[in-house]
Design a protein that fits this description.
It is a single chain. By secondary structure, the protein is of the alpha/beta class. It is 35% helix and 23% strand. It contains 13 helices and 15 strands. Strands 13-12-11-10-6-9-8-7-15 form a nine-stranded mixed beta sheet. A six-stranded mixed beta sheet has the order 2-1-3-4-5-14, sandwiched between helices. Helix 10 packs across helix 13. It starts with a strand and ends with a strand. The structure holds nicotinamide-adenine-dinucleotide. The site of nicotinamide-adenine-dinucleotide has 23 residues, from strand 1.
Length: 377
């Protein structure tokens, strides 16, 4: 049995949304062991959380500087190899950059940074360090999404001519209408979230999905964003027209004020020979549409799925897979890369696509502020 890869975590404490997803995902394929980190800017809270999850506290550090210095004192065999960055957006760049510069592999939450400029600097640093760098666009880890990607890219639905990806959430609605309450949300604070809330937080997932599935890059975009109130600085809703080429176009619709919606990411992709429909809240069913046959429903775990899809399914068909499996598969791909094993480039989103995500966010804001104009990506 290969030794487990030593994993550190920054952020993702008991008070966080995303921490548990990464902890469970890292354990799922028996590749990683969590050995330390900084779960919270308050060291006492960090230690208390480590105790709560049964982690020895000797490698819980007060901040990233102490983390890097402390790990440097350990033998290579003991040292943390890869670090998950699960903090609010504004900390992704300084943390990830320092980690990469010090030779750590990194698994970074999206959006990669808070500006394109930072993202490009980070990409250069990764190229120089030759380390593994993954950006957790979580929904690319679903086996049936990977199957859809393989089928689109092998031509099953013909030439793609329409992409419609919608990501609707409603969670900001009940807290948006009270000025005092909305001022407490970091996702609406430009110093913590960056230049966008809705497009930066979830529109970026939809954009990544569009490029991930089609294997094509979006060439131009036109965005119309909505902040809902004058004093709200960042968008909470947006519609973005996208063009891959003159004959391949689409729309990305994202909202945090789609009242009552939960985590409604839906994908509709149509080509000359067929189409696919998929919904994140019902992730084990992929609908394959054609002009002349009844709708076909594909499910994960069956022999008709390709290798990359099957590699991410751990139980026989009919045992529903969910978001934990999806993130677990991303971690599994990162483990293969760290171990120097073969892996498919669809197994995790790399720093290049993280930069594409930042370009998309910046251009959407610029398009909107310039009077809803078309801009090149
Ligand atoms: N991939 C996805 O689907 C997905 C879903 C949700 C969130 N996210 C991303 O994950 C990141 C975190 O989001 P969240 O909703 O979990 O945020 P959150 O506010 O719930 O949690 C942030 C965590 O970071 C910790 N933290 C803050 N400053 C820190 C510091 N200086 N050092 C160490 N820890 C620190 C906080 O204590 C907390 O534990 C964001 O970038 C967000 O975009 C991604």
């Amino acid at each position: 049995m290969a030794k487990k890869i030593k994993l550190g975590i920054l952020g993702g404490g008991g008070d966080s949304l995303i921490g548990v997803l990464h902890r469970v995902a890292s354990a799922m394929h028996d590749q990683f062991e969590i050995v330390g980190g900084v779960f919270n800017p308050d060291i006492d809270k960090s230690i208390a959380f480590a105790e709560e999850i049964g982690l020895p506290t000797n490698r819980i550090y007060k901040d990233l500087d102490a983390f890097v210095a402390g790990e440097a004192k350990l033998s290579e065999d003991e040292r943390i190899q890869v670090v998950s960055v699960l903090t609010p957006n504004f900390l992704h760049f300084p943390m990830a950059k320092k980690l990469v510069d010090n030779g750590f592999h990194v698994i970074c939450e999206k959006p990669l940074t808070t500006s394109l400029e930072e993202a490009v600097i980070l990409e250069e640093a990764v190229k120089k360090a030759q380390t593994v760098f993954a950006v957790t666009y979580t929904y690319t880890g679903y086996p049936i999404v990977r199957q859809m990607r393989e089928m689109i890219q092998s031509g099953v639905i013909g030439e793609v001519h329409k992409v419609d990806i919608q990501y609707y959430q409603g969670w900001i609605n009940p807290i948006l209408h009270d000025k005092k309450v909305r001022e407490t949300i970091w996702r609406l604070d430009p110093t913590k979230a960056g230049i966008s809330s809705c497009i930066g937080d979830i529109g970026t997932h939809a954009f990544n999905m569009a490029e991930y599935l089609t294997g094509k890059e979006v060439k131009t975009i036109l965005a119309d964003l909505n902040t809902r109130y004058e004093d709200v600085q960042l968008d909470v809703d947006g519609t973005v027209l996208i063009r891959f080429s003159d004959y391949s176009k689409g729309v990305i619709r994202a909202s945090q004020i789609a009242t009552g919606e939960e985590n409604g990411l839906t994908v509709k992709i149509y080509g000359s020979k067929g189409g696919f429909n998929w919904e994140q809240e019902n992730p084990n069913f992929l609908y394959h549409l054609t002009d002349d046959k009844p709708v076909q429903i594909l499910k994960p775990g069956h022999a008709y799925n390709g290798e990359v899809s099957l590699d991410g399914t751990k139980l026989p068909p009919g045992h529903p897979e969910g978001i934990f499996d999806s993130m677990g598969n991303i971690y599994y791909g990162v483990a293969k890369a760290i171990r120097g094993l073969d892996y498919d480039n669809g197994e995790f989103i790399n720093v290049y696509d993280g930069v594409r995500g930042m370009k998309f966010i910046e251009k959407c804001v610029e398009s909107h502020q310039s009077g809803n104009v078309w801009l090149d990506l």
